[in-house]
Design brief:
Layout (H helix, E strand, L loop, with lengths): L1 E2 L10 E2 L1 H11 L15 H9 L8 H6 L2 H20 L4 H7 L8 H14 L11 H14 L4 H15 L9 H5 L10 E4 L32 H5 L17 E4 L2 H10 L1 H6 L15 E2 L6 H9 L1 H4 L5 E7 L15 E7 L4 H4 L6 E6 L9 H17 L2 E5 L4 E5 L1 E8 L1 H8 L19 E3 L4 E3 L35 H8 L45 E3 L1 H16 L10 H10 L8 E3 L2 E3 L9 H12 L15 E2 L4 E2 L4 H16 L5 H17 L4 E2 H19 L9 H4 L1 H11 L8 H4 L1
Parallel strand pairs: 6-11, 11-14
Antiparallel strand pairs: 1-2, 3-4, 4-8, 5-19, 6-7, 7-8, 9-10, 12-13, 15-16, 17-18
Length: 742
Amino acid sequence: MLKCPCLNCRLVMSQTRKNMLCHLLVYGIDRSYNPWLSHGESVEQIDKNKDQGYVAEVSDNESEDRPFDDMAPFVFDATSAWNSINSTSINENERTTYIGSSSGTSETPMLLQKLVEDMEADLYPGCKTFKRLEFIMSLLHIKVSNKWSDKSFSMLLNALHRAFNYDNNLPSISYDAKKYTKALGLDYVKIDACVSHCVLFRKEFANEVKCPKCSAPRWKQDISQDDENSDDEDEGVHRKTRVPQLVLRHFPLIPRLQRMFMCSKLAMHMRWHNKGHAGDDDDNIMRHPRDSKSWKSLDELYPEFAADARNVRLALASDGFNPGANMSSRYSIWPVMLVPYNLPPWMCMKSDNMMLSLLIPGPKSPGNDIDVFLQPLIDELKELWESGVQTFDAHSKETFNMRAVLMWTISDFLVYANLSGWSTKGAKACPNCHKDTNSEWLKHGHKWCYMCHRVFLEPDHKWRLNKRFFSKKVERRAPPNPLSGNDALEQLHGYPNVEFGKDNKGKRKRGERYIVHQWKKISVFFQLPYWRHLLVRHNLDVMHVEKNVCENILGTLLDLPGKNKDSVNARLDLEVMKMHDDLRPKKVRDKYQIPRAPFNLTLHERRKIVTFLSKLAFPDGYSSNISRCASLQDGKIIGMKTHDFHVFMQDLLTPTFQGVLDEKVLEPLRELSLFFKQLCAKTLKVADLERMEANIAITLCKLERIFVPAFFDVMIHLPIHLATEAKLAGPVHYRWMYQFER
């Protein structure tokens, strides 16, 4: 018999182990029971856990009930870190580097000192449940969690003041309450920008009133010249605040990284990648980016950087979104986010550890001009690499020189072009094959197709000599070599970079389309000294590739409007390319007679598939309700989201079309489904990836023997590179857009 710690017994009643298990499952454990003194924990073990930075896990429901408990360790560690710095023998300038760099003034240490006082002060005389700081942070957490407006939050604070007669130490409006976060390094800097995206009004352009390139005014034209030049002492003249036309929000990266090391437990986790863990003896298994070739290559090139495990490795992600959730609006705002890879897998990609670095304003997309807005971040990254910043480590209670490196970028395929500088449209759209991309213009389809995947087969593969099924040609070429950073700079050597900016119509100022090949610009990331040496600089987003591949398959098989790649023009291109003799159209008078392809389904067969999907039921949280997307009347699927395509591609593609689709068509689709399922695994084996590299080339060749050339857009081609990229950079769930888009 043991004392039961459930919410019903609360260590008063004793139960057998079996009954105790039932009680814990039914009633749950008493969260206040910590440490477990009645169930084996000793005082020595408690002290050991504290020394090792042990953190008890709290469920999501519990954190919602007690929101401040999640923030408290960070606040307490931040304030204690300031006390530690204050007690050490360092000068005032160094203290500003540690604590005050987020705002650039001496106000932050004063605010941080106020946090220390409010942390110990009662909410009101005699209050035993809340401290002043705890109450304010709890209110702020509730505001953010429930998406309150500033107006409603100010009304609540005002009502609390009137109801309980709080003193002036508590904020009465939302603005004063949010100032508490300023001391924790969560401030941002406003940088005026040219409305045509030419320059930022910073550094040498800080005092300009017009853009030095396009002469566009910096300020909105709502202020008369007399008001600007009038004397402040003149009576009757009311000067207005000048409003910039475009404002970039920059959230400084260096203070945010310094705050991570001010939390002792987080500082301990930032060393995780350098510690030995179970399974490390097997070098062929990748569980984390630290196991990848790209990570190890960086360690070999820069051993002085790898010597300190606290040096930070970052990834950058960016994409545009509509802030009003109104799809009819064309307004687009672009956040730029960073994620540190030092953390363990269960923390690395959590939203709590993602850092917003830039907020690029709309309404127009920055497009190729994103380099202009990235410049403040690039300057910080250069400083973090070349000289580093002095940072206090709350875990080891010492200061060290923190450095950081940007390992790669994460984006969809369209933003890939904006970040890398290589155009992802046209004949050479594949950035991995670069100028050796195999493409062909479809005369009737009026677009490019990307086929000839036989170049990725083994040199002695029999299909290389097969003319019957592959455009009447023998394929003897070797696969394209990947483009390294040095190769890219060599191609761009001697060419001037483009002039950034748009005209009034939103078009590029530059007359020529490309600098050389398909290079649109020299990427701003090449300003980083190490960028040319990275094995992977820009990632192909598996999320969007998988979604587009699945959408192409479903659109063609189910004849979805606007998504079907098998059209009259697609069949006419078969005659030009001398492919698929049995699928070529036959002209009968003024119309074309289209032969039925093995992948064409009748209405009865499509309804049979949709009926199957309409009866599907999934576990909670596994997927959305795909059955709602099934239309029984016309046998179509509409309204599926990106994650729905992910689930369909990996788990539903084979059972959905099994027994309905011809086996020779279903076989390569089954192989493609298995390829994505293996690629998205949490752990990857190098041997499996090498086998997948060879198999995906065969799978795509099988698809070439079945589908029309219009089916093979660039998204169908990109899976040929995904296994190779995973072999260099590690598991894909650290490098796809799911977390950032959510």
